[in-house]
Amino acid sequence: MDGILHFQDGSTLDTSSFLLLAALLFAIGAAGVMIRRNPLVILICIELMLNAVNLTLITFARQLQNLEGQLFALMVMTVAAAEAVVGLAVLVDIFRVREVEDVDELSELKG
Amino acid sequence: MVAVVFWVAFIVALLGGISVVWQREPLKSVLSLVAVMIALSVIFLLLSAQFLFAVQVIVYAGAVMVLFLFVIALMGPAREGRSGRLRFQTGLSLLMVVVLAGLAWAMLSGVQYRAPQKGDLNLFGTVEQIAAGLFSTYLYPFEVTSILLLVAAIGAIYLSRRERE
């Protein structure tokens, strides 16, 4: 199989261009997690990576015409929402005590 | 037409993603991420995932991003420190990302896809089909998900309550 997707208006697109976009977004998000220092921005970059993964799942669901990829993407969205809620609650808790400009400042648990 | 829409969404998502990392202010990063999510939702629609398109716009671009905006409003315009502790961290990160993207590209260029199952594309991804999957085969994960959301809500309330003993 060459993985070419046919659409209703007759146009075709390659599956790998969808997967390429997902891979690039995932790489950009990973770069953000490593480069940025504000903990809030790191959470935002994690959301970006999760969205890239969702795009991969939905692309393969369409290519295989199998709905399980879409169902799993729905689960990923739920888990991402839960992760954002708890992560932001922890952040608000930390920011109430002091201003954090760099996640490396939060190293009190280091032995 | 579909191809044009896809490539426009591709470029918007890519530029938005770069902007998320590039912007120095968290507020602009969040707004860029909203742009990425809207572009991705358009692509979901092209991939006949109508229900996930709606969920992406309402739950992700709507609820989760508004949550981020609320936290920024609570914390004020927090800026981040310019210099890191590890001197080569930015360069090494960029190198790793280039390697990651290169690996992905190498994998994608020679991939063999499995043949699709035979099905009606007009029905694929509709709310009806999603519900049929979610409430029959995947009922157990669906219920566990509701418990996860309950735990997250309780955790958020516990973490952000005001008084401490």
Write the layout of secondary structure elements.
The complex is a heterodimer of chains A (111) and B (165).
Chain A (H helix, E strand, L loop, with lengths): L3 E3 L5 E3 H21 L3 H26 L3 H30 L14
Antiparallel strand pairs in A: 1-2
Helix pairs in contact in A: 1-2, 2-3
Chain B lengths: L1 H21 L3 H21 L3 H26 L13 H21 L17 H11 L1 H21 L6
Describe the protein:
The complex is a heterodimer of chains A (111) and B (165). Chain A is built from three helices and two strands. Chain A is mainly alpha-helical and 111 residues long. The longest helix of chain A has 30 residues, at 68-97. Chain A has helices at residues 15-35, 39-64, 68-97, and strands spanning 4-6, 12-14. In chain A, α1 packs antiparallel against α2 (39-64) and α2 packs antiparallel against α3. Chain A has a two-stranded antiparallel sheet. The model of chain A has no long low-confidence stretch (mean pLDDT 87). Chain B has 165 residues and is mainly α. Chain B folds into two domains: 1-77, Four Helix Bundle (Hemerythrin (Met), subunit A) (Up-down Bundle); 126-165. Helix content of chain B is 73%, strand content 0%. In chain B, α2 runs antiparallel to α3 (50-75). Chain B is globular. Chain B starts with a helix and ends in a 6-residue tail after the last helix. Chains A and B meet through α1, α2 and α3 of A and α1, α2, α3, α4 and α5 of B.
